[in-house]
Amino acid sequence: MNFSREDIDNIIVKYLHGEASSDEIQLLREYINSSPKNMDDFKEEYSVWSAYGALDIENKVSIEDALNQVLTTVNKKQRIGKLLIRIAATLFIPLLLLNVWLILRNTNAFSTKTITYNEITASFGTRSLVTLADGSTVWLNAGSKLKYPYQFEGRERIVYLEGEALFNVESNKKNPFIVKTNNLSVKATGTRFDVLAYSNDPKHSVILVEGKVGVSHWDEQKGISTYLTHLVPNQVFSFDTLTRESELSSEEIYKYIAWADGKLVFRDDPMSEVVKKISHFYNVDIELKGEQLKDYIFRATFDEESIDEILKLLKISSPIEYYEVTRKPLPDGSFQKRKIIITAREN
Question: Positive or negative, the Cα torsion across 333, 341, 126, 132?
C-alpha cells in the first residue's frame, strides 16, 4: 500500500489529539507496521508530542523547560520540523513555538549534515571492487555505476546503484544498509546479495546469497517506498519496471553471481537471456533474428573469454550463424557501437 507522507502526518496529529477515526487509526497501524523505519519515525514524532504535552498553562509549567525538552527530543529533519508546526498550531501558544521553529530553520538547525559522495563506474568488459567506509565491499559489474558517501551519516547507510553489483555488507542492525536503484530499495543489516538494475532493461532482480534482505518499490519522484517482500538465502526476486509485476523463486544462484569471479555461467537459460548478459558485459548490440532462437536452451560456462571467442563457442555448440554489421564513423570521429546479428543455421 502507498502512503502519502502528508496524509500520514495529518493522521498522526489527529491521533495524538484523540480525534482520528477508526479507519484512520487502521491506516496509521498499517503504515507503522509496513517497515522498521516507519516505526522509528512514529516513535520520534511521538516523542515530540510528549515534549509538547508539558505545556500545561493551568499548572504553570515552565515554557522554557518545555521548549528545551522539545529541542532535545526532536529529530533534526525537515519533515519532523513541518510536523512540529502542525502540532504547535493546535496548542495554547502557537505563535511562540512557530517563531522558535522559524529561527531554528533559518539557522539550519533542522538541516542534516552535508554528505560528500563518490562515484565509480566499471568499464565494459571489466569489473571493479569498492570498499566502503563501514568495511562493506562491493563488486561492480561491467557498465555499472555506484554512488556512495565517503562517510556514512545518520541511521542508514545508503548507496545508489545503476547496473549490477554484488554486496558484502558489514553487520550493523542499528544502521541498516540500503541500496537504491531507480525502482527498487533493498534493505539489509549484514548480508551478501546481488542487485541487478540496468536502466535499459525493464527486468530488475535481487539475489540473496547469505542473510536476509527486504525489498521495496522505490518511487524517487514521489519519495514513496512501498514494501514488496523479503528474501532468504538462495532466493531470486524479479521485478518488471514496466508492468510492476514481481516474482520470487528459490533456485541455484551461482549463475547469477558468477560474473564477480570473472565468469559467465548459463544453466538451461534461453538464448534471449544469454545474449542479453553478453551484451551488457561487453557493451555490444546482439540481435536475434528468428523467434525460434529466443527459446533455444543453452548451457555453458565462459571464463575470461573475449566476445569473439564466446561467439565462436556459441556457433560450435548451437545451431546458429552470426555476422557483424559494418560500423560507420560518427561526426566526432568515433564509430557506432558494435552490432552482431545471430540467425538460425540453415540445414
Answer: positive
- Number of residues that make up the chain: 347
Question: What is the residue whose three cell numbers read 529529530?
Answer: 75
Cell of residue 261, nine digits: 569471479
> Taking a C-beta distance cutoff of 8 angstroms, is the pair 159, 178 a contact?
yes
Distances (CA, A) of 237 to 78, 151, 300, 313: 34, 30, 23, 31
DSSP string, 179-221: EE-SSEEEEESS-EEEEEE-TT-SEEEEEEEES-EEEEEEETT
Between the ranges 18-27, 98-107, 190-199, where is the mean pLDDT highest? 190-199
Q: Which of 3-12, 101-110, 243-252, 313-322 has the lowest mean pLDDT?
A: 101-110
Question: For 169-318, where are the E strands, in sequence order?
Answer: 177-180, 184-188, 192-197, 203-210, 213-219, 224-231, 235-240, 246-250, 263-270, 285-289, 297-303
Local structure of residue 260 (DSSP, 8 states): G
